[in-house]
Amino acid sequence: MQCKELEFVLETQGLEQLSKDARLHLATCGDCQGLLADLNSIVSAAKSLPAEVAPPDRIWISLRAQLEAEGLIKEPVEVSEHSSWWESFSAWLRPRTFAIVTAAALVLAAAVYLTRTPRTPHPGVANDQPVAESSRPVQPSTTASDSPSSTFPVTTPSKGPALSRPKELAPSPSESASFTLNQAELDVPNMQLAGNSQVDAALRQNLRTLNAFIAECEQHLKENPQDELAREYLYTAYQQKADLLAAMMESGRGDN
Amino acid sequence: MCASSVIQGTTLGATRRIRTHSGAATGQLARQRPAQPVAWTEAEAIRLAQAGNAAAFEFLYQLHGRRVYALCLRMVGNPADAEDLMQEAFLQLFRKIGTFRGESAFSTWLHRMTVNVVLMRLRKKSLPTDSLEETLEPDAESSGPKRDVGAPDLRLSGAVDRVNLERCIEKLPPGYRTVFVLHDVQGYEHNEIAGIMGCSVGNSKSQLHKARTRLRELLQEEIRQQAREERKAAKTPSGSLE
């Protein structure tokens, strides 16, 4: 047997259970011995690598939202026999629910607008950039190397007076969204949601999961304000929380 | 991308380093792990998911997500891309789950979609510099096992650690990388890989052997590089740093 033939054997039959001919060749060929030993080392090291890795929870949250948006998830919807379309519509217009959903939507819209729109420099402060440059539309981007002026700052480090936002003047949109949603959430603990303990528990569990995820995003953004991916996740989570709270209040029998 | 980040850390900094099993079992752990209190078989969950049941979708996701995520991580080398790809793969799966008739194993079907999604992404990324033939189906002459005549015969035994290996896996062409990860890391058999990749068993064996020999070359190069750096450091006088 020649070296080429041994290599063909290794390819077709694997590294174990070698034929007698192959073993005879190996006994006399140092190069092939080295090749086999090295391949065995590689296979052994590969087996020590984890075959499973836990994905972050946010993937399922995002995936589920997408499945719902596409109508792939078809939850059974229980409709009261006595409720007319007008009752359903008027219930949706109940002041608190309507106000919360509207406020959350407005805040999120503002957040998205500020994220996607380049900020106009403060007129009273010198700006080295030419006008054409500063007024050019900024492409939505998820890279961390974008100009700070094109991104929405949560705790963006100040790079100059023209770009800094005095925190005491107004809360950032994400802070507003967080505050609004937290206010809405205050009513939830005492509310009997759907008259069904299992559904109640599932809704509350979803809310806890979302809150944990939002806290994780906010903490990460405090440490890495330029992480656009984290910001996207945070806004998606706010939107999901607003939807969830609205759904909870819809199904609730509280005094709203 | 640092090789160690392939298996630890996420975009949001929630560090997870989870090692599950190191053997070559084919997904048994994933199949046995209860995702939630619901005691469904995979077939029941598939049937319910086909009807749009949210819990069934989640059950299937929990059942297979860890292996799919690990595969995506090894294929693309960074967590952010791996998350995107995993979501895309599951989204495609759930969109088409109504057409699943059980002719092949569900996990094979899922992994085939995942591999397709990953290779499509890698193909898009590599288009400006590499041809498809070169990256996906390297021919035997250009990328097959090479024996360097006259080159020092380095032995790898004892020198292959996980970090080195992961770094070298990232350098493999996508086709080799896929087969190597599926067989030697995830423990799939050649007939399963043939189903996932849509190729013959012989082709799978050939690709695996070429992947291993290419890895050997890459690892030997790593060892030489380390030796060069060590020699360079040894030559540098200690006082020259001041």
Write the layout of secondary structure elements.
The complex is a heterodimer of chains A (256) and B (242).
Chain A: H1 3-13, H2 20-28, H3 30-47, H4 57-69, H5 85-92, H6 95-116, H7 131-134, H8 173-185, H9 197-223, H10 228-251
Helix pairs in contact in A: 6-8, 6-10, 8-10, 9-10
Chain B: H1 28-32, H2 42-50, H3 54-76, H4 79-95, H5 106-126, H6 132-136, H7 140-143, H8 162-171, H9 174-185, H10 190-197, H11 201-235
Helix pairs in contact in B: 2-3, 3-4, 3-5, 4-5, 5-10, 8-11, 9-11, 10-11
CATH-defined superfamily of the largest domain in chain B: RNA polymerase sigma factor, region 2, helix turn helix motif
The H-and-E topology of chain A, N to C, reads as HHHHHHHHHH
Radius of gyration of chain B: 21 Å
The proportion of strand residues of chain A reads: under 5%
Helix content of chain A: 55-70%
Order of helices and strands of chain B: HHHHHHHHHHH
The name of the CATH topology of the largest domain in chain B is Rna Polymerase Sigma Factor, Chain: A
Q: What is the overall shape of chain A? A: elongated
Compute the number of strand runs of chain B: 0
Can you tell me the CATH class of the largest domain in chain B?
A: Mainly Alpha
Through-space gap between termini of chain B? 31 Å
Strand content of chain B: under 5%
Q: Main sheet of chain A?
A: none
Overall pLDDT metric of chain A? 68
What portion of residues of chain B is helical? 55-70%
